[in-house]
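To fix ideas, we reproduce below a protein record of this kind.
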Amino acid sequence: MSERWISFPELEDVIGKAEAEALCKTFGGLSKYLPRKPDADHPFAPIIGMQALADLAAYTGGWHLALPNLRRPEAEKNRILGMLDDGRPHQEIAEECKVSERWVRHLAARRREAQGQRKLPIGV
């Protein structure tokens, strides 16, 4: 899966503030595929309208778009760290805590760095 994260200011520049807020409130923290030429059946269409959807697709279509989560996940930080300590999978933690997997991976990486651990190479 090819994923591209888009920041809120970047999203706002492409589709406008109201549309960016609506999209992030609905799909924030999730990764959704955005084809290069979406149709009216795409899940973003009823939220942001076809013109904003076309603008977004022209900007970053063809990727799984990771949308920013406008909620403040700091409140869940200690709970997430505890779940990481228990060895729970990132996706499971994200779903249960209603945060993005990206945030969970970020916290896991910060914890490893603080403990002086390096990330293992892929395949090890």
